[in-house]
Amino acid sequence: MKEISIIDAKNHVDEKVKIGVWLTNKRSSGKIAFLQLRDGTAFFQGIVVKSNVSEEVFQLAKNVKQESSLYVIGTIHEDKRSPFGYEIEIEDLEVVGESGDYPITPKEHGTDFLMDHRHLWLRSKRQFATLKVRNEIIRATYEFFAKEGFIKIDSPILTGSAPEGTTELFHTEYFEKDAYLSQSGQLYAEAGAMAFGKVFTFGPTFRAEKSKTRRHLIEFWMVEPEMAFTHQEQSLEVQEKYVAYLVQSVLDHCDYELDILGRDKEILKRYTQLPYPRISYDDAVELLNESGKFNVTWGEDFGSPEETYLAEHFSKPVFVMNYPKAIKPFYMKPHPTRDDVVICADLLAPEGYGEIIGGSERATDTDYLTAEIEKAGLNVDDYQWYIDLRRYGSVPHSGFGLGLERAVTWITGESHIREAIPFPRLLNRIYP
């Protein structure tokens, strides 16, 4: 008798197997017990027919508590009525670990309650599906960049300087010196690009931003590619190709999970069609104001309503290009014919999910970069290593950052970013 996983049930129809599972829910009549089971790979139903098992096994099936762990032995059958398509007719079961008074019962619970029990809430079907999609996006990320000739480098989490300004940093002491939790791996990725040509970093980043929106986390993961000898237009082509690759990989490998989430796959397929539209910041302001729904002053950053309108207008991810210099970080390359904008782009996702990528061509002139660092109120001495990248064999280079959780939230169709990471860190939450 073979021990299998639920996800492999399709390969063992009419075979007797053994599976290690947890009980998510149950119901029973006088003659049949229906057990809803999971094992970390999928969810399906186990049926215990009273006339086909011992009285002891049937009573155990009727009385076993939610989230007890079990070994079940039985025969796999095709079940066209269920979303999964298969079930197991159980002839024997063994309790491995009992569970009593499981706090998350099959009823409505408040968000705070569920987040307080996040360590258990991860076991539920929707959270399972969302985080399986997250895993596929991570897998596809490594695959994509390997195919494109990138290597992964690891940027430090503890840094002595800020890439995005000092107001959103978590400060700590580093042997009597100031240190900060990383806001971004980008500056270090630029050093990597000068050594290896094309690199990407992938790791946790931290923003001490006191925001409570459905798009913001305090701790989140960023994918940050950096490319030498690359101008902005070339970078945009990599960005859209990467995003389309992620969506297609989820469609190819997470069909079951997307069904659990009720995600419209036809809409996702639309996001694999390239190229993505491009619009300048100037034209975006004009489009917003002409809609009659907004009154945007040139120079303002866009908020959630504006980003939502722009992406919905195109019904696909859209690049908004060349934002005002005053609202962007110091490292972005100035526009060749204008001194009020920089060469950059944000990729806005449709369906109300907003920015999922921010990128730019990087400044290469040492004097300009030094002046911009000073203008940002930063200590130029802290950035000498970064300026060195321009002193010794500078080249045009570009890069971008994709927020993993924002991408997961968008692709899964979840309503809040907290669902896209196993243990979210929010303004009011650091437990569990």
UniProtKB/TrEMBL annotation:
Main location as per UniProt: cytoplasm
Record PANTHER family: ASPARAGINE--TRNA LIGASE, MITOCHONDRIAL-RELATED (PTHR22594:SF34), ASPARTYL/LYSYL-TRNA SYNTHETASE (PTHR22594)
One Gene Ontology term of the molecular function aspect: nucleic acid binding
Family annotation (PROSITE patterns): AA_TRNA_LIGASE_II
Pfam families documented for this protein: tRNA-synt_2, tRNA_anti-codon
Keywords linked to the UniProt accession: Aminoacyl-tRNA synthetase, ATP-binding, Cytoplasm, Ligase, Nucleotide-binding, Protein biosynthesis
Subcellular location as annotated: Cytoplasm
Top enzyme class: ligase
Domain of life: Bacteria
Summary of subunit composition and partner proteins: Homodimer.
Protein name per the record: Asparagine--tRNA ligase
Gene that this sequence comes from: asnS
